[in-house]
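Progress note, project year one: complex with beta-D-glucopyranose.
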Amino acid sequence: MLKLTLRIITILSLLYLLLLGYFNYKYPVQKWDWSQIDSSNLKFPEQFLWGTATAAHQVEGGHTNSNWSWWENQNNKKGEPTVANNEKAGLATNHWNLYPTDIKLMKDLGVNSYRFSLSWSKINPKEGVYDSESIEHYSNIIDSLLAKNIVPNITLHHFEEPLWFMQKGGFEHEENSQYFELFVVKMVQAYGDRVKIWTTFNEINVYTNLAYMADIFPPGKNNSLSAGIVLKNILITHTKVYNLIKKLPEGKNSQIGIVKDIFFFEPKNRWNLFDWLGSWVADANFNASSLDFFETGKYHFSVPFQANVNYEDLNAPQTIDFIGLNYYSHYATEFKLIEHEKMFSPVEGEAMTDMDYTIYPEGIFRAIERISRLKKPIIITETGIADNKDDRRGLFIERELYAVSEAIKKGYDVRGYYYWSLIDNFEWSLGYSKKFGLYAVDQNTQVRTLKEGGKVYQKIVKKFSKPINKLPN
Ligand code: BGC
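Model obtained:
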């Protein structure tokens, strides 16, 4: 009996090792030996979009009517302030008034494009009410950008929405998408003669996970099923909005995309089957749920024992002209049935950013590879590093751009790169402590100063950036 038990244990152990050996071989650690790489060897297409990015709530200031201005005055489920140090966006970087200065900063950098978002809550403060001054405001920004040969790339929903919309249940109710559709139609009618690049939603999985699965973004639901439903409804809304824009005379020649951020989940211990499982569950939830929808038309969102939401629209792959890729880093992942937020930790052996993840510039190559399965042009709509001391940013940018250039050399259709962010700004629930900007902002005087890391970007941009005379199609 003992012999038999021992034999079974030995066979099972061997099988376990064999399986893990196979996973280790099939999915090797993807790290580059930077000491062997000349990262100045770069190649980019002539008509490449070189840009920086911001989002309304994070930079404009004076938001009083949105999900975020409400959220900043709440406590989370643990009774703590929803934003670190109880900060509020407040005046932010006063970009609302200082946009001419900021456009000048862009010109100094040499970029040929600017990605920014419209504040839905400023433009549409009450149900059915549209504020003409705000509409004109963005029109002026667009004109000022074009006057400087900077192509606008507009995001229609960047985590911020009117409070009245959130109070109606937001995207939890499919019928509420009509409000967003109306907003989008008005925006395209107002700006579509001059704006040709549109992204509907920013980082759909970040938004749904942080706002609905957790209580980090408003409305802070803490309910995985709600997250799955909201994501489904956002995807449906995107497809509707795409078709609406294309039917408008002002939308005819526009390029419409959605922004997906790819974050990688590595098994923390590569010889533990559960850690592999954890990394796959996280990837399926965070990456595959929306990527698959635009690749195959099939949507599947699941959280073990909590949510299982499915939907199909085989036409979905035809509702993006390009895919916006946001990339930041990767996490080491363990399997946890409950307390999902404790599954993730920084990957060992890599230098840290100021966020809870490490510096992993070569990951952008993997992200491009992965997202290329959608068979659409790729625009890197965001990437960057939180680096308060500004002692890692320059090298990060150099290496990341090398990785992007390698992807282009291999034939991946990458059409643009927007560094996040132009200026230090309000980093959502983390407040003002995380500094992603190419320019530092003095919070008292609002004076902007180019950082050393910003100079590195400027040098590369000035070498490659040409005015855009023909938009990708
Ligand atoms: C978001 C930005 C954010 C940045 C840095 C992205 O998740 O789109 O709004 O500031 O990453 O965390």
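Residues 2-26 form the longest helix (25 residues).
The first strand starts at residue 49 and ends at 53.
No further modelling is planned for this target in the current period.
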